[in-house]
From TrEMBL:
This is Universal stress protein. Gene3D superfamilies: HUPs (3.40.50.620). It comes from Christiangramia sediminis. Residues 1-146 form the UspA domain. Belongs to the universal stress protein A family. SUPFAM superfamilies: Adenine nucleotide alpha hydrolases-like (SSF52402). InterPro entries: Rossmann-like_a/b/a_fold, Universal_stress_UspA, UspA.
Amino acid sequence: MRKILIPTDFSKNAENATKLGVELFKYEICEIYIMHAYAAEVYQLDPLMEPHFLKSLQQRISKMVTTKLYGIEEEIKKISPNPKHKISSIAKFGLLLDETRDYADLEDVDLIIMGTRVKTGDKKITFGSNTLQVIKYVKCPVLAVPESYHGLHPQNILFSTDFLLPFKRRELKLICSIAKSYAARLHFLYISNSKELSSRQKENKNFIESFTSGIDVKFDRVPGKDITETVNAYVQDKHIDLLVMTNARHSYLENILYTSSIEKIGLKIQIPFLVLQNLQRI
């Protein structure tokens, strides 16, 4: 059974991410948790509020949030009735990052689904601060869904990797499960000017080959040094509809996430982006 956590701020962006997540895993037995953390909504009104007023306000907002979450539950059950899915909602008095991390650990969540924005004109992925913080600090895969993207039925999945890090079985299983559900081709893209793999790279690649038995898998090596340009071109050329990368120490993705232009990734795509985690965090 797959456990999926979907934090929501009740925006159209979050609504779209929720619907896409429910649709993507319609063939699997899932527990889907829809969560809203509302501490910021309480404190932004008056951070110096006296305790008894604060408690009263907290109770009112909690009731309002619970009602909204119930409405989302009912809407999902109405538009996507699925006996394989158990949907529940959680209202938490706390900050979104803290509550997401704690709940993901508590329930051993397999995947977090959140929304992203795409800038009009240049079509670059722009993570909202909440999505970005979750990707950086929660030890769980995150599926970032562009606000304009609807109905994910992947036929071509791209996993950009250098084969240097060992792959986690649980996260590979997630990708393979999606590929199997939609009979999708799984592309492993290695961007390098060197044709030869090291012993470690060969070992990791061999593990992938054995783990993905029965799936349509394609391994490609593309020469070059500009990962961003190469990935963009590959996405367009191969009609990729789901991009996968791993967030690891000193990786291409980590370098982007921790740069000064932290909210902008140069990947000019409008497809869902699955970020796997290979980081040990405190």
